[in-house]
Amino acid sequence: MQTKTRIFVIDGYRSVPKDLLTALSRIYAVSGYMDGGEALDAMHQAPPALVIMDEQTLLRKGGKILSSKRASTQLKWVPFIIIGNTPDGVLFSAESESATDCYLQRPFHYNRLFEQISSSLSQSVERDWSELPTRERRILTGTVDEFKKISRAIGEGRPLNIEAAKESCQPLADCVSDSQYQGVLSNVKNHHNYTYVHSMRVATYLSVFGHAIGVRGDDLLILSAGGLLHDVGKVATPQSVLDKAGKLDEGEWLVMKQHAEQSGVILDSTAGVNQGMRIIAEQHHEKLDGSGYPLGLKAPQLSELARMAAIVDIFGALTDRRSYKPAFSADKAFSILEDMSSTIDQYLVHTFREVVESG
Ligand SMILES: [Fe+2]
Ligand SMILES: [Fe+2]
Description:
Layout: E1 5-10, H1 18-27, E2 28-33, H2 36-45, E3 50-54, H3 55-61, H4 65-71, E4 80-84, H5 90-95, E5 102-105, H6 110-129, H7 134-155, H8 162-177, H9 182-188, H10 194-212, H11 217-229, H12 239-242, H13 250-268, H14 275-283, H15 304-319, H16 330-338, H17 346-358
Parallel strand pairs: 1-2, 1-3, 3-4, 4-5
The structure holds fe (ii) ion (2 copies).
One fe (ii) ion (FE2) is lined by residues 198, 202, 230-231, 313.
């Protein structure tokens, strides 16, 4: 099953390094073009999700591609990232007036490009959300805006605003109470900030799970907001590790695992954090036999909430679509969870399976 997002690279002078193209191809289905005219023909056949274009190619072999796409209702929202050497993208600015396009000056760290791709693709998805029914639109736009604020605050070393995070999750908690959450789950999947998608799916499933076993009111909101915040430590994890296709090497795995401890550090410096949120963020990778991280807690030390968070986190990751793997079915995800009897609470897995299958 093809799960990769299609992007074009228009580079008539082979200015994009081979190793960057290889890195892009691990995550995206990349098609290469030598000039703007050739690429424009292909775009009219089947528009890609995004285009990366070399500035010199735009100037000398561009074939007015930016103005042509701007004039096309089919293509005008396709975001372009122009890569060039001029300090302010003079050539690019002369060609583009579109808010969907941006300029990246060499030299740049590859992560900078990956972040820009993810951000440009996500803007397209968020624009599509404006067509959704009011309730779903409110949940998705409210939480994604809050998630961006949270990411910015962490990047700038500022404390998080827990009340604002809870407020953004209130419509989600309300919709879970009314069993109207399927639209949220299916639409959030299209977003390209994987940590946001995963966090929202965990927030939704954890709230659904909690609601089914009798959690109500502010406690239910703690599950929604705790789910949204559970991987906040990943804001510091490099995109190349988060999006890597295939197995992480030992060093990358160590970097990835740091996020759980980091989530705890971030919440420790945040006023108003409830104990339930802290457990969800700090203990969702702990296992009953002590093989989990960051603390290697064992069964007697793991509360029902920590066990629920671990189940929902694994279920969410298995049923997520990633650039390098299709989404597993709920059935397959549960059979994997049911094989984890020494590490995951099987009574709660059984309960959660009933909840998901009846939803
Ligand atoms: Fe995590
Ligand atoms: Fe997670």
